[in-house]
Amino acid sequence: MDNIELFIGKDDMDISEAMQKIDKNANGILFLTDENDRLTGCITDGDIRRFLLSGGRMNELAIKACNKHPRIAKTIDEARTLYDKKNYIIIPVTDYDNRIIELYAGDANHVKKRNPLNVPVIINAGGKGTRLDPFTRVLPKPLIPVGDIPIIEHIMMEYQSYSCDEFHIIVNYKKELMKAYFSDCERKYNISWYDEEMPLGTGGGLSLLRGKFNSTFFFVNCDTLLTADYESMLKFHKEHNNVITMICAYKNMNIPYGVVEMGVNGSIEDIKEKPHMSFLTNTGIYIVEPDVIDDIQDNVSIGFPDIVKMEKQKGKKVAVFPVSENDWMDMGQIPELEKMRIKLYGE
Known about the structure:
By secondary structure, the protein is an alpha/beta fold. Helices cover 26% and strands 28% of the residues.
């Protein structure tokens, strides 16, 4: 692999720093080394997620969450054999002193299979997309192209890679354009359409599907694309008996100002110069149990986050499944469209 320095970090870095480096290499893994460059462990985005879900903090050392006995090889041939035998991400090749000299991530034509999930997908595509004005004066937001195809097809194709082929699409604004596009589309999809007669927000449209489901489903907004491991999300949802699992992405931001904490009478409690912040943000993607639909009133506009709060107040289990910022693409604003295109198609 080229640029192996993107996959190596010092073992005194914290979780937040490790996440940022994992995001940069876009392979979901980082190898940790000591002050003498010897391999001390490896950490994946899954390791970080499990650590944080168990109560770990972003400012704790990454070494606390890592695998301290990663699989290694001494030659590329050995790495290739190990890689093909099991579902490894990357195999490090080390020298006699356990220093990384090369990384093996599979041959260029090697494609790892995804297990079929066969879960229905509901897409909320009824909004006006005002953040993308003036584009949405002409096209509904789901049909705005990112590269060669509309955003909604990128979303659908990602689910199809997990054999999720049953799509239910809630429409309102410019809905006839939506239906016309898919009726003439070269790629054929199994779609059921649900027409909102009035705007029902990001959650109220689910009431149109009452009685349609007796099993778990994905519920997604039409402007967000996720490339994380859907199988792990679904497993987490089932194992914890959640009625709703909200998929959230960690955002890492450097504040370009000095931040002041003020106390009583204007006293200065603390000053932080250009601090780094990490927080979770809602991606607009959820895993939902069908009985949630029964709690949604007909013809009442409601946001899905409000439905999450409602289910929590009723004592039902709702939870967050955190993913890497690098796995989440949002095209809800014009500047993000080009970022998404570059990520999907390259420069």
